[in-house]
Structure formats: C-alpha cells, structure tokens
Amino acid sequence: MSMLSIRGIGKHFGGLQVLQDVNIEVPGGAIFALIGPNGAGKTTVFNLVTGLLKPSSGSISFLGQDLAGVAAHRITRLGIARTFQNIRLFPDMTLLQNVMVGRHHLTNYGGFAALFATPSFREAERRSRERALELLSWVKLDHKAESTADNLSYGEQRKLEFARALATEPKLLLLDEPVAGMNSSEKAVLMEEIRNIRDRGYGVFLIEHDMRFVMNLCDRVAVLNFGRIIAEGAPDEIRSSPEVIEAYLGRGDEAEVLP
Amino acid sequence: MLEQQLVNALTLGSVYALFSLGFTLVFGVLEVINLSHGAMFMAGSFAAMTVVTRFKAPLAVGILAAMLVSGLLGLAIDALILKRLRARHAPHLIPMIATIGATTVLTSAAQGLFGVEVQRFPDELLSTREFIFGSVHVRALELAIVGIAFLLMTALFLVLRHTRQGRALRAIAESPKAAALLGINVEGLFLATSFTAAALGGVAGLLIGLNFNSVTPLMGQPILHKGIAVVILGGMGDIRGALFGGLFLGFAEVLSKAYLSSQMGDAVAFGLLFLILLVRPAGLFGRVLERKA
Amino acid sequence: MEAFADFWATYSTLIFTVGIHALLALSLWLTLSCGLLSLANAAFMGIGAYTAALLTLHLHWPFPMVLAAGGLAPAAVALLIGAPTLRLSGVYLAMATLAFGEVTRILVLNLEITGGPEGLNGIPLLTTWWHIVLILAAAGYALARLRRSRMGRAFEAIREDEVAARMMGIDVEGHKLAAFTLGAVLAGLAGALNAHSTFFISPREYGFENAVDILTMTILGGISSLIGPVLGATILTLLPELLRFLHAYRLAVNGLILIGVVLFLPTGLWDSRRLRQFVGDWRNRREGKP
After folding, report:
1. Full domain range(s) for residue A240
2. Domains contained in chain A, number
3. Which ipTM was obtained for this model?
4. pLDDT tens across A100-129, in order?
5. Chains B and A touch (3+ CB pairs under 8 A)
6. How far apart are CA C88 and CA C90, in angstroms?
7. Per-residue pLDDT at B236 exceeds 80
8. What burial class does residue B154 get, using C-beta atoms within 10 Å of its C-beta: 0-12 exposed, 13-18 middle, 19+ buried?
9. Is A43 an 8 Å CB contact of chain C?
C-alpha cells in the first residue's frame, strides 16, 4: 500500500502542457527519488502534491485520502512536509523561531491561553522550544539557534529548512534538491540523516540532480522527461535503461551523465 | 437630456483617460504605482493658472507650462526617490509609500503658496462660445478639452508604436534586464517616462480646471482615486485599458449623477474599483503585477 | 498643583490625541505584521466613531457598551469584506482597502443619519484619560502576548514568506482575516474614544489623508516592535504643534518624513535588531573587544 499515490496526473498552464499522465507510487518507509533533466516538471509534481497547484487531471491520494480540493496547509497537517529548491526560510526570524513555526499546528492553544499565559500555554511553548532545539542539534545548528536566519551559509540554510520540515512531524518528506550547494562531507552527513529518518518509518520523496547521491541512497527512482515518466524502478535498472540514458545524454547534458 | 449628458460624459471621460494614461504608463514601464500622479495633475493646473493670470499668457502657453512644470516634478520624484529605491530592489509597496509622501509635500506646498480657496481662470480665457447641434449645446471649451486630450493620447500611441524610443519602452515593460542587455538606456528611458507621464497628468489637470473653472490644492486627490479605478478597470500597464477605462468611468459617473443621484456618482468609481479588484484584479486588458525577468 | 491644572487644561486634548493615535498606529501595526498594507483603518476608525456617537446620542447607552460597540461594528464590516479582499496582495490590497475607505467616507457623507457633511455634533465628552490609558495598555499587552505566541510567529512567517508559511501548516487566509479584523477593532475603539473627546465628528476626519497619517506614524516608528508605532504616533502628533510656525507647510513635514524613512531608515526609528547590535557593539567597545 503506497503512502502517496499519484495517478494519471496532468497539468497545463494555458497552452503549455507541463505534466502528462504521471503515475507514481511512493511507498512508506523508503527513499524514493524523482530525477530528470531540468525543466522536466519535477518541482511541479511537488507543488501539486503539497496543494500549491491544482492538477488539470488525475488524482493524488495520501494514506488513502484523496487530496483533491484540500487546502495546502491542511495537506501539511495530514503529514506531508517539503523543502524548496530555492530555499524559503523566514530571513528575519531566528533559527529557533524558524523551526518553531514548523510546530504551528502541533501547539494547540487558543487566543485565550496565549493572552493570559496559562500553564497549558507555557507548557506547549516549552515543548515546542525543546523539540525545535532538538531538531537543530540533529542538523548541528543548535549553537546558532538565536541568530537570524539570513546569516547562514548556503549549506546551513538547507539544513535549517530540513529541520524545519521535520518540525511539522510529517509522515512523508518531500525534499527538493536537498544537497544542492553542499560539499561532499555535508552530503554524506545528510545522506545518513535521511537514512535514519527512513529507518524510523518516515517516507522520503526527493528530487535531486546529484546522481551519485541518488544512486547510493535511494530505494526506488522514477525518471521524468518533458512531463512524462519514462522509467521507474530500482537504481540499477534506471542506470542501465536506454530511454533514461538518451534523455540525459541525448540532450548533451554531460554533467548529468550517470555514474 | 441624454445627448447633453453624453457630451459631458465624453468631456469628462477623455480627461480621465488622459490622466490615467500617464498613471498606467509609469506602472507599465517602471512597475511603480505612482500615487503622486494626482499631485502632478494639481501642479499642472496651478502652473497654467499662474502663467495665465499673472503673466497674461494665452492658453497655449498655459498648456506648455502645465506640461513643463508637472513633467519636471515627475522627473524630480523619479530621479531623487524612485531611482534610489530601484537600485535597492525595494518591494513594490515601498515606492508607492514614498510617492504618497511626495504627494503630501506637494499638496502642502501648494496650500502654502496659493491658499486653500478655489482659484478661477480669468473670464477672457473661457469663451462662452457654443456650438448647437440640434438640441445639444457643446461649449467651445468642451470641444477643446476633448480635442487636446485625444491629440495627446494619439501622439502617445504613435510614439509608442512607431518610434525607436517607443519600442524600447515596450521592451522595458516586458523585461528591463533583457532591454538593458540589448543596449537600451533603461535608466534614461525611465526618467523620460516619468517626465512624460507627469506632463500628461499636468495637462489633464489644466483641462479639468478649465472644465469646472476651479483649481484647488486638493483637486489631485479625488482624481487620483478615479485614476486608480480606471487603471484597475482597464488593466494596469495597458494603454488601451486606460483609454477605454477612462471613457467608461466618465460615462458611468455622469450618467449615474444624472439618472440615479448626484452623491452616488462619486461612489460609482470606487464601487466599480472594489468589485473589479475582487473579481478580476488584472482588469479587462491588463496583467497582474508579475514580470518574468 | 495649579501649574498642573493649567498644563492639563492646555494640553489634555493633545495628550488624548497622542493616546488615540498610538492605538491607531498599533492597529495598523497588527495588519502590517502579517504583511498586509491596509489603508482601511481610517475608515474603520470612522465606523467606530459614528457607531459609538450615534449610540450615545440617540440610545444613551452606557459608555463601556458604547465603546464595545465602537470596536465591534468595524470588526463586523472587516469580516464581511475581509475574505474576498484579503485574497489580493501587496499593492492591489492597498488599493482595494483605499477604495473601501473612500466608499465608506462617501456613504457617511451622504446618509441622513450620520448628519451628512456637517457630521455629528454635541457628543458628550465621556472619554477620560484613564479610558485611553487602560485601553492602550490592554491593547499593548494583548499584542505583546500575541507576538510571543504561535499566532504571532505565524503572522511573521506569513509576512516573510507566505508560501513557506502555508507549508508549515499555517492557515494563511484565516490568520490574515484575524489580523485585519483585530486591527479594525482597535481602530474602531480609537474612533469611539476620539468621538467622545472632541464633541464633534465629521467624515473629513476619516479619509485617505488620515490613513496616510497613521501609515506614516507606524512606518516612522518601525514595525519590529510595539514600541515603534507608539513612538511614531507620539512624535508625529507632537511635531505639528512644535511646527506651528510653518503654517500650511507643516503638513509637508509629514510627507518629507515618510520619504525620508523610506529612503534612509526603512526599518523605522525603533528597530530592535539595530538596537541590539548597537548595544552589543557598545558593550564590546567598553570591554575593549574589537
């Protein structure tokens, strides 16, 4: 039983067909990669899953629940979290605050409690803060917890986004190019981190261009080209698939030659 | 009766269109909502008034004065304020707020210089000549207003469509970065646009001042709101939209005042604006505030 | 004591005005903290003022109830127009709220019950200084607590990146509506208090120029903390008094301030981050650190 079921999804903007008949089954407890040349439509898939865009056709369901018409913030509450290709942090807030925002829907107190600083309010805030610090220490950023997010290096920003996504207590993590801009030791660390998360039962669905990262880490890979899925299977199958090789090499993208 | 109202509507509408044209031009090219456009309108009116009453100049000189003074003010606002904000890539709200500040300064200066009472044009200027077509009386003044407004608007259309600068402006409206790469002097054209737009606004001010024979420091405010309504209606950044929107508003306003109630006439503009924003913010022709490059 | 009584007689109106402007600046702060530039707060103030004044004049309700009504009436309107209006963003929202403000002003100008252009007269002077102090303090306290709660974090997140906020499970539309409506409550209270301290109200006090004044105060003070709007309101209320000698030109100062702040001091006078840095640097220099 898949965690995330993308069935027959199509998306067009005006006259431009960006995705066509896309079928992907993302299992829980596994690391699933979506790869493909630039402009294939991968981020659009993420935007559809998270509810930022509506599909033109097809359906998406998560843990058996149809996501049609469900508002984006509710989809997050159902258990899907994501990071962004272009990193969308809250630049004027501290790292701690950034991660605490991720806990928004888990801190359940109302205006009254906040207004009068009731014990339940203080307890919820304390737990939120603790959990945020814990997540920051996972990504080795806890020493910077009180500095503002615009003061981070590129790699640190990615790690913060990762921690923030985890703060929403998701069941499925959508990572859009999680290691872009990282050096090899940082990538190795993140790879280990993602494996840990998978082993704890989370699902991971990621988009990446770093082939070594994908092949070494992922359990299953799907390849998107010009809005269509051209291959899906275990990393070894994909590596040797003629369609995939053509999709990459045929377009002269030497940088993305499969290892 | 109806035909008479149509004449009034055309007169009012063509000035609204002329005013809104400048406003939408700045938006289309500079991507700024220049809320000081109303002050340009007012400044042009006062400039013409001063030249005509103090120096006893003919109306043509008044028109030139309106264009020059308003144009220079618009240029100054761009060079001193907007240009700096462009360099900083400030989000769109910021330049808008700055132009609000500029309006306050100019309005206050006008109040200080000219006082708050209504100023009037000298009688010699306003010929009472009328042309009579059947049951319709058209004042020479109204003909002149419509004529001048359409003349200027046509001139603008022709420049935008058929001259090199016009094409350059349209390129900038699409994408300033691409335009710069093509060797277009983007900053220079920004300044030129600010000047031209303000100059058109100034003439519009003079024309309205003549039409109602009333010039006050606060006259820029209501027209600004109407300009916003027109531009939202017709689509921000779209020249045709400003023309059609302006005429439409003129007609809607005059006919509402004639057949519904005079008070509701003013509310019509804002009611329409509000509704359009809710239903289709891009207006009839325009695009929503989003540039590709 | 006599000196105090004299001072009060001369300046009480001014002090009241400072308090009321501070409340208005806070109301705008609330919407700005969520990333919304709303120019409707002057209109909300007007709705509050007229509702309160009419209740006092015609129905003779007790003052606390009048104040409550003054706060709730604009809130009802805000809820009504909020949902469709807040879908707009940035400049479009600013213009829609501007249009709303103008429509309200024109309506008030033309209705019989509001007294038309002459406004309402003879409103009993029921506001005392402790009304203003209490309400301002309560508002300040409530907003301060809001900032430290998840709602405050959500507002700030929405302001900094709406899409990311949505991905954090934040109901963006709901929060924007809440900020807009609460802002209307504060503006309405300010209006009700004002109406009962100046004897007379007219549509001219609640138009676009007033919305701009409130905006200037809030931006001058800075929105990074609650002190900013109060500081901005105080300065811009007292400044015209000090600049009386400029006559009509003193309003130009407001415009120049707005331009100046936008160009040179975009985070406002009271910027917590800049101050913290400043204090940090000062401390370091004292201790001989580089």
Report:
1. 1-79+171-259
2. 2
3. 0.89
4. 999 999 988 887 888 888 888 999 999 999
5. no
6. 7
7. no
8. exposed
9. no
